[in-house]
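Narrative of accomplishments. A recurring question from our advisory board has been how the design workflow behaves on a single, concrete structure rather than in aggregate. To address it, we present the structure tokens for one chain from the evaluation set, followed by the sequence designed for it. No filtering or post-editing was applied between the two.
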């Protein structure tokens, strides 16, 4: 059975207006032409679509079902027009990417730069969130892709390793701990810490590790960014733990010392995740494959 887009549009107008005459005026045609299109559609389907009465028309059961499908078709047609218009304007689509701070600070600038050189007309909507928020956003469909440190099972998500990072203990150069080659977490717990906000994967990991050692984590100050955390450590407000890539480039310029953290949890895996589904738009798929490959290079 073939359906004509213009006829479906007129049918939706009739359903919306509740009147063939008003629908004809809305579509800038005559009532007889609208009536004929509806009659031809009913013959084609083999079912009555409208109850006709003196005050107008109402949808039958078949008409209500057609209305649902026709509305979806017209929405998709509008989306198609918008997508093709983007091509004409040189913008070929958008990918919604959410990532934790570690991925954004250490790796994504380089990987997104190389992707956009290959696909210069793609727009990437990048947002920074905690790993837990990234999990929820990708699972809920409000983001196409996410990069996170998993804190719970990735049910409903497809994941691959993006990158691994290594945690370092950050301190002023004259700090007593700076004489070591590396540090166990237990050796640091007698000192005040500058940490990231509670709820971040790194803060959660540190709190849990301190609890397993049955020692308190002396979290003196919580900074909302890696930059802020480094500055506070440099001023002697406490020691800190950050990924290597966000520490080593700033050691000399910010007057800091850093030592490897000798713990199993100090090597973290950043996972690239997407919602598990059969149909997958091409742009998120292209970015997913690019980031996955970048992590393997």
């Amino acid at each position: 059975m073939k359906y004509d887009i213009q006829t479906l549009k007129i049918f939706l107008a009739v359903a919306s207006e509740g009147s063939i005459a008003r629908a004809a005026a809305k579509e800038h045609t005559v009532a007889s032409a609208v009536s004929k299109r509806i009659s031809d559609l009913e013959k084609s389907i083999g079912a009555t679509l409208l109850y006709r009465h003196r005050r107008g028309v109402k949808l039958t059961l078949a008409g209500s079902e057609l209305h649902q499908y026709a509305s979806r078709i017209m929405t998709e047609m509008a989306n198609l027009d918008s997508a093709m218009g983007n091509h004409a304007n040189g913008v070929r689509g958008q990918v919604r990417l959410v990532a934790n701070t570690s991925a954004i600070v250490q790796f994504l600038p380089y990987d997104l730069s190389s992707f956009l050189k290959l696909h210069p007309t793609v727009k990437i909507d990048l947002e920074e969130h905690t790993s837990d928020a990234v999990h929820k956003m990708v699972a809920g469909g409000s983001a196409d892709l996410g990069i996170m440190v998993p804190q719970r099972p990735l049910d409903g998500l497809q994941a691959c390793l993006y990158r691994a990072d290594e945690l370092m203990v950050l301190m002023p150069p004259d700090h007593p701990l700076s004489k070591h080659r590396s540090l166990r977490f237990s050796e640091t717990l007698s000192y005040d810490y500058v940490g990231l906000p509670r709820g971040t994967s790194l803060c959660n990991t540190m709190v849990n590790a301190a609890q397993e050692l049955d020692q308190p984590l002396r979290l003196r100050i919580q900074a909302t960014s890696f930059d802020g955390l480094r500055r506070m450590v440099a001023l002697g407000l406490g020691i800190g733990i950050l990924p290597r890539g966000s520490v080593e480039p700033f050691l000399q310029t910010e007057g800091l010392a850093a030592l490897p953290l000798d713990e199993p949890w100090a090597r973290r895996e950043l996972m690239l995740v997407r919602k598990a589904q059969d149909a997958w738009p091409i742009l998120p798929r292209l970015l997913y494959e690019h980031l996955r490959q970048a992590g393997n290079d």
